[in-house]
Amino acid sequence: MPPFLHIDTLLLVYLMAAVLMLLVLVGGAWQAQGRYGLWFWTGAFAAVVLAQSARDLLVFLGSPLPLHTIGHIGGVLSSGLVLLGVRAFLGLRLYWVPICVAMAVMSLVSLAVVSAGQPLGVSLSLSLYGAGLLRALTLWPLLRALKAGPSFPLSLMASDQMLSMLAHWGRACMVMPGAVDSANQTEQANALWLLAFIALLLTQGFALLLLVNERLQQKILALVEIDPLTGLLNRRGLDQRLLGLHQRAATSERPLQLAAAMLDLDHFKQINDRHGHAVGDQVLVELGRRLRNHVRPNDLAVRLGGEEFVVLWFDVGNDSAVGMAERLRQSLEQAPFETDAGPMRVSASVGVASQGAAGEPLEALLKRADAAMYEAKRAGRHRVVSA
Ligand SMILES: Nc1nc2c(ncn2[C@@H]2O[C@H](COP(=O)(O)OP(=O)(O)OP(=O)(O)O)[C@@H](O)[C@H]2O)c(=O)[nH]1
Asked: How many Å apart are CA 152 and CA 244, to the nearest integer?
């Protein structure tokens, strides 16, 4: 066997890999103020490092056999903390009481069997079965999150947890005394198992870093593409969505057909002048909320700037668009807007245009809708005009 495959060398590599990940995570968790469940992840790597070092020290000091199970307990704690870390990262309920109870029971069983005179292999096997179970529980929410949309870091983490689960259970079968023939217990086989666990540990750490990176990128994109006051898409967000939709439409049989309703509040300046900018902002926030509630998930509601909004409907003809715009306009006028200056009646002028010929540039469509909206203003406001 090559010298680098010696168990002692590999154990050291395993420890060093865990220390490396721990250091990266302590820094990351500190900087992120514990967001994304990073303290749980830090705990998971710390459990590996502490348990492994403590075990080596106890063996060196010749301490009683039951205490050597600390290494097995470390594996269970690490898997439990990874489970909590994944749940915290995904924003799920932690269920930390049942998870902690499960970890405690598994640790006690691991300790008790050796105290009762059973060989260390039994304790190791049982703790590996337990840790594998915790990995299976970790895999479940990851797979559910993947169903919502593809993500390379999530896939990597899910694959790592699945392989980790299988590795824990596979190893548990191998180390149970008498369960398999002794050929599986050679130093070479042990070294290969250890190599697999090192690879899984490193993959887990890197998958986590990629996950956090992806989450931060999503946050930055949201800041750039979402209007902070109303929570609606801004112009840049609209362009990005349409770019994606056009790319998808280019590969499908059906061309993208849009209808736009350009909406501008009437005499909004008076609200600002009479009641102040803060009340004006409250009106805009409420308008954003109503637009969001009004459009279907596939349609887009956008704040283009100031008090100018646009709603985009997909695969809707001009007549339907005019009808929908009229219902939208009436829904704004029907119920007063609640503000700090009391309930306020608000009306809007709306211009509607639809892409007669497929492929009309968005800019041209919005221009026609805008012209129709100004026509509505000229005709006396609070009405819908079709381009
Ligand atoms: N409170 C608040 N006001 C804004 C915001 N953005 C633009 N405004 C105001 O919106 C008002 C727009 O006024 P005008 O373009 O004259 O339009 P209007 O008073 O609604 O009159 P018509 O559109 O002709 O009916 C200006 O007073 C802007 O200061 C914002 O984010 N918050």
From this structure: 19
